[in-house]
Design a protein that fits this description.
Length: 140
């Protein structure tokens, strides 16, 4: 009798342990997508000049588009934590890297939707060129 009780107790312990492991693994898998709001972004350069080595920067994402020719669109790129109404930019102008920051991202939240186009224009005013966002269009 004593051995039967031990087997039942051990089997019950193994089930509880298996259940705990399953819950833990399930929780971890569920959190893989936590705080993600995948969106797609492309950039349309409305200006007369190519924007070289363009990178769009969000609070938690950095998306490299490369060269975006005048009056043309880049391919869509995935932004893991969503696209916002504003962004910072990095690009090359006359061989120098230009870092264009936003004042702050306090209260920044992604815009609802899954695909967007930033219409931009390179303002080549010297000595401080900058990328102007003309509009943010929700494609989907």
């Amino acid at each position: 009798m004593q051995s039967d009780t031990w087997i039942v107790a051990r089997t019950g312990f193994a089930r509880v342990r298996s259940l705990r492991i399953a819950v833990l693994v399930g929780g971890l898998l569920a959190c893989v997508g936590c705080h993600r709001n995948d969106a797609r972004l492309r950039v349309f350069n409305d200006g007369p000049s190519t924007v070289e080595k363009l990178t769009v920067l969000f609070p938690r994402d950095e998306v490299k588009f490369g060269d975006v020719a005048a009056r043309s669109a880049s391919a869509y790129a995935t932004v893991r934590h969503g696209v916002g109404p504003n962004a910072a930019f990095r690009f090359v102008w006359n061989g120098a890297v230009v870092e264009q920051e936003v004042i702050d991202f306090i209260g920044w939240k992604p815009v609802s939707g899954v695909a967007f186009t930033y219409h931009i224009r390179l303002e080549e005013s010297t000595p401080h060129p900058f990328v102007r966002v003309i509009s943010v269009v929700k494609d989907r």
